[in-house]
């Protein structure tokens, strides 16, 4: 035993017991590459290096991405003893618009200090075994987590810092084809890193081979040499997600009753700006069969009676700009009173499986309508499904139509002539077209004239005020920096009314982007602290904007909301959508913004999330209001939103597809904090 080793043992005495036995990690060397995919399209690479002497393991990771033209990177370094005990960890994102947690950990004697972005240092007593984890942990560091797990795990989980624990469930052995040979890999579901877990594959030496994870977007990380098995990894993750959904359904879905009576509640039917007091709603086989005054209505003898006295019943709400990339969105959406979503871009394999499990198997979640993400050529493209030629455009429409999609979703790299083909082909088969105004299309007007039925995001929608300018030439804050005349507004209104265009402005997301640097998310979204922590981590730990930029963003969103409000008052269909901020809370913020800045009454704001989207999607005769004969999509609130729009946040139960759910168990299932916490 050399002197250097003795000194190191003394220094680390409080970290781990030193042994003269040789560790398998002494004088170890490994390096490799993981390919990084977003929606199955490669956007970058991560290279890692693991090296050690007799005392210390050093793991370095460098990740670079070009995600839709946004170039960024992550650099990370982890120090461990050769017994795999953590000594220090540092990870930071290198980006001009950093929204990702920066984390640093150091062990000093019997104390562990953790720094997280925007928060003071937290020091805690060192646990006997722990590993530092953040939701954006690089693959090279994550691989060491699993080696550590198997070395230390005795009862199915290990504690992690700054919070929580990680558990691994072995789901079986998979055989994949690599270079024409069968390769055996072990599949696990890992909980405690990202919201809702991730599916991983390890080789027989416990080295990480592939990760499929979500949070707010699906990403695949696949070790170089295994990329041909990507379809298998995607399929495996869908299987595990559906298994999770099945588990939620078994634990949350009560015994179905053929007839249910919601007795004694106040009803906001979505047709009139009024509240009907002390009403009873009778539901049979998932449809409303009777609505009447509680003292007068006849309740069938075999009805399941639910007392909703003092509560307010409203139509189940719609989120028209969802990206529900994992099944946890299902219970979370229902908990917030959202009973229908339009998924505005997702991986086809997962999206169709999620939709069908709810529609065909009665799984717990909102009804899902699908809009198929489609983009054009180049590094700014989004996802793997591209339309770069006339033939590809036709094939894209066939693909989505054959999979039961309702719409084609246009993204920003679509070329003008291809946009027309996509729209024409979609309309031929009864699909509509929504999405972004592509960068190469001259204006929002041109996009609509080329066949787009719906437009997303206020910065693209309001470009109609400047029909002679390309969106790319207007700048990021063109609403704040320009005087908008009544003539511009009236001409824009006339144009959209003429074409019957539906607008999906995602104003709440614009509000979130006004967060000043250093301020917590709660100043904009009061329920941010209730989010599932791993989702909360990636959403709340935003770098924020400079004081000047934050103020400019605020002016921009206020002026945008004012004009959108005028569009609504003129009869243009405006639909509420969140664009993936957070289930439930993002929806409340969207409707609150329409009222606060757009001038809509609470009732009008509610309509943007009920009958207007239902009508826009051709389902207004089936749902969207509380009427006899319609589907019983009902949100049950503790307070009336017509008196205060923020009362939408008081959703306490929901009915959909004939099932009644209390919100608290739904929130808990999705790992959100209770309203009572």
Automatic annotation (TrEMBL):
Pfam families: Amidohydro_1 (PF01979). GO terms for molecular function: hydrolase activity, acting on carbon-nitrogen (but not peptide) bonds. InterPro entries: Amidohydro-rel, Metal-dep_hydrolase_composite, Metal_Hydrolase, Metallo-dep_Hydrolase. Residues 331-659 form the Amidohydrolase-related domain. Transmembrane segments: none annotated. This is Amidohydrolase-related domain-containing protein. It comes from marine sediment metagenome.
């Amino acid at each position: 035993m050399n002197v250097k080793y003795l000194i190191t043992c003394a220094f680390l005495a409080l970290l781990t017991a030193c042994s003269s036995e040789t560790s398998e990690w002494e004088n170890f060397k490994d390096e490799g590459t993981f390919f990084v995919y977003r929606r199955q399209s490669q956007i970058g690479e991560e290279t890692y290096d693991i090296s050690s002497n007799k005392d210390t393991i050093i793991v370095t990771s460098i990740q670079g991405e070009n995600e839709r033209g946004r170039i960024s990177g992550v650099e990370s370094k982890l120090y461990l003893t050769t017994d795999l005990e953590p000594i220090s960890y540092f990870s930071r994102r290198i980006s001009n618009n950093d929204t990702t947690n920066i984390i640093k950990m150091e062990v000093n004697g019997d104390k562990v200090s953790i720094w997280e972005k925007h928060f003071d240092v937290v020091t805690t007593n060192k646990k006997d075994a722990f590993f530092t984890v953040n939701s954006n942990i690089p693959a090279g560091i994550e691989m060491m987590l699993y080696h550590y797990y198997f070395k230390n795990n005795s009862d199915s989980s290990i504690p992690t810092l700054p919070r929580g624990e990680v558990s691994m469930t072995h789901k079986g052995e998979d055989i994949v084809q690599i270079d024409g040979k069968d390769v055996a890999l072990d599949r696990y579901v890992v909980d405690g890193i990202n919201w809702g877990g991730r599916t991983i594959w390890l080789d027989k030496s416990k080295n990480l081979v592939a990760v499929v994870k979500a949070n707010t977007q699906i990403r695949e990380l696949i070790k170089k040499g295994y990329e041909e098995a990507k379809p298998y990894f995607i399929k495996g993750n869908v299987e595990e997600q559906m298994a999770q959904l099945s588990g939620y359904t078994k634990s949350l879905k009560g015994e179905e009753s053929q007839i249910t009576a919601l007795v004694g509640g106040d009803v906001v039917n979505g047709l009139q700006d009024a509240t009907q007091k002390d009403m009873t709603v009778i539901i049979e086989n998932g449809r409303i069969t009777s609505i009447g005054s509680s003292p007068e209505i006849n309740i069938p003898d075999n009805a399941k009676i639910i007392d909703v006295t003092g509560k307010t019943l409203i139509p189940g709400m719609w989120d028209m700009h969802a990206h529900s990339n994992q099944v946890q969105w299902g219970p979370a959406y229902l908990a917030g009173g959202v009973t229908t979503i339009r998924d505005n871009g997702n991986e086809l394999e997962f999206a169709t499986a999620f939709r069908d499990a709810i529609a065909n198997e009665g799984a717990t979640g909102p009804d899902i309508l699908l809009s198929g993400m489609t983009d054009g050529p180049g590094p700014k493209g989004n996802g793997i499904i591209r339309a770069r030629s006339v033939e590809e455009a036709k094939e894209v429409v066939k693909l989505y139509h054959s999979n039961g999609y309702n719409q084609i979703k246009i993204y920003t790299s679509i070329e003008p002539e291809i946009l027309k083909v996509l729209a024409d082909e979609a309309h031929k088969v009864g699909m509509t077209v929504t999405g972004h105004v592509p960068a190469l299309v001259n204006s929002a007007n041109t996009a609509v004239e080329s066949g787009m039925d719906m437009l997303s995001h206020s910065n693209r929608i309001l470009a109609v005020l400047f029909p002679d300018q390309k969106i790319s030439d207007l700048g990021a804050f063109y609403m704040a920096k320009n005087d908008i005349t009544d003539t511009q507004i009236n001409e824009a209104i006339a144009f959209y009314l003429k074409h019957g265009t539906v607008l999906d402005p995602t104003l709440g997301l614009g509000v979130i982007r006004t967060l000043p640097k250093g301020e917590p998310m709660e100043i904009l979204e009061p329920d941010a602290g209730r989010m599932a922590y791993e989702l909360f981590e990636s959403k709340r730990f935003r770098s924020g904007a400079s004081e000047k930029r934050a103020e400019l963003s605020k002016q921009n969103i206020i002026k945008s909301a004012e004009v959108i409000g005028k569009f609504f008052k003129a009869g243009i269909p405006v639909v509420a959508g969140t664009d993936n901020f957070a289930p439930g809370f993002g929806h409340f913020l969207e409707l609150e913004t329409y009222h606060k800045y757009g001038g809509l009454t609470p009732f009008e704001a509610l309509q943007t999330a009920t009958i207007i989207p239902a009508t826009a999607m051709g389902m207004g005769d089936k749902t969207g209001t509380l009427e006899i004969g319609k589907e019983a999509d009902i949100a049950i609130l503790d307070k009336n939103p017509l008196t205060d729009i923020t009362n939408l946040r008081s959703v306490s139960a929901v009915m959909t597809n004939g099932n009644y759910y209390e919100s608290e168990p739904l929130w808990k299932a999705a790992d959100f904090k209770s309203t009572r916490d």
